[in-house]
Amino acid sequence: MTRANASFDIAITEIAGGCLCGAVRYRLTSIPRVHYCHCDMCRRATGSAFAVLAWISFDHLFWTSGSPKYRRSSPLAERGFCEDCGSPLTLAYDANQGELALHAGTLDAPDRYEPRYNYGASQRLGWVCCGVDLPDRNTEERW
């Protein structure tokens, strides 16, 4: 790793997160790709108007304490959560074997990683106004 940008080095070595109760903790060794997701599946799974997902390669994710329990959330994906407190932690699509998404709110410093686009934008609720200036990507998925 180069020392040319000290703040970049700090950001990479200090990316960590976990669930509400602390039973499940993780560490990342790469900066995640973050976006808003407005699809029906994410809304229902989070109980919110949208999800904020931080995508990371399996090679750069390390569970440092505990690990999520997984459940099938749709015919094409599974989600991980803390078995103790119920915090939603991950989303993994069956077709995308190399990476998974962490819920950005589980990062210790989520303010460091801004969403860069909207996914499932055609399903955005009319009153949601965050990220309207970001690029949109659509999905065919409906739940």
Output the number of helix runs. 2
- Tell me about the biggest sheet? 8 strands, mixed
Report the top-level CATH class.
Answer: Mainly Beta
CATH architecture level-2 label: Beta Complex
- Tell me the span between the first and last alpha carbons: 43 Å
Biggest sheet, spatial arrangement of strands: 6-7-8-9-4-3-10-11
Overall outline? globular
Structural class designation:
mainly beta
Beta-strand residue percentage: 25-35%
Number of strands: 11
Layout: helices, strands, pairs:
Elements: H1 6-13, E1 16-18, E2 25-28, E3 33-37, H2 40-46, E4 51-57, E5 61-65, E6 69-74, E7 77-81, E8 88-93, E9 99-103, E10 118-119, E11 136-137
Word description of this protein:
The structure is a single chain. The protein has helices spanning 6-13, 40-46; strands at 16-18, 25-28, 33-37, 51-57, 61-65, 69-74, 77-81, 88-93, 99-103, 118-119, 136-137. The protein is mainly beta. The protein has one domain: Metal Binding Protein, Guanine Nucleotide Exchange Factor, Chain A (Beta Complex). The strands form 2 sheets. The protein has an 8-stranded mixed beta sheet with strand order 6-7-8-9-4-3-10-11. A 3-stranded antiparallel beta sheet has the order 1-2-5, with no helix packed on it. Strand 6 (69-74) and strand 7 (77-81) form a beta hairpin. It starts with 5 loop residues before the first helix and ends in a 6-residue tail after the last strand.
